[in-house]
Amino acid sequence: MKKLFVATMMLLTSLSLAPAQVTAEITMNQETFLLGESVPAAVRVTNRSGQKLKMGEDADWLTFTIEKLGGNVVAKLSDPPVQREFTLESGQTGIRRVDFSPYFSLDRNGRYRIIANVRVKAWDSTITTAPKEFDIVNGAKIWSQEFGLPLSTGVTNSAPVVRRYSLEQANYLRTQLRLYLRITDVDDERVIKVVHVGPMVSISKPTPQIDRGNNLHVLYQHTAHGYLYVVIRPDGEILARQTHEIAESRPKLVGDENGNFRVVGGLRLPSDNDLPELKLSETDATQQTP
Q1: 164 with 144: CB under 8 angstroms?
Q2: pLDDT at 2 over 80
Q3: Which domain holds residue 163?
Q4: Residues 245, 219: Cα–Cα separation, whole Å
């Protein structure tokens, strides 16, 4: 009888210690986001139990709660898609990435707190992460323009769908000035997409132009001597990204009679962020004079 009692106590102690041997944390690459911007995060689950664990089998193995500090729990619009089975050997760390923006009503500026719950099915246990906080801020609008969406192939005599491009700047922690593009409906009420265009300097005056396909072209100064040129489609997809610098002249955006735009002047530089990738042999050809 004494042996049975000891064995039972050892089993209960093992089960109570097991969750402590699996840890979870929420990580974010940034902690400040523009209103309407994607809010990506990663949940890191580390197994130090000495056992192989199966995770992610069920849709509710990973759940989240978001609350607004000084307010209420944020409404969940739908469950983030986290179900995908994987195995964690002892000593391994698994990562599941989530964008919270489409699944929670993060439609007001302020400070928020996320908590994740990770269910370990084999032990019938749940691990709760430490809270992770982030801010949602408003940007300062510096330019706005309505435009119509191009008609789909085969569609004629249809009333145009009108949207709005807005360039906004946000000053993160008063040290990081960033340029964003917000794409909304014409009344600026429904957000289609928020695109982080890139860093910028305070003296920058972006040059926006809309081409014949209603793609937005933006040239602006992002360093003391450098310029970024970005082309963005009406759905928010970035078509092109180039880096230029001041040489004998400053880069500038010019258009032709067909409604097309290009950068002339300055010197184009190859960059890891180029879209499409620039070949080194092309750099000489990009040195154009106005």
Answers
A1: yes
A2: no
A3: 139-150+159-286
A4: 11
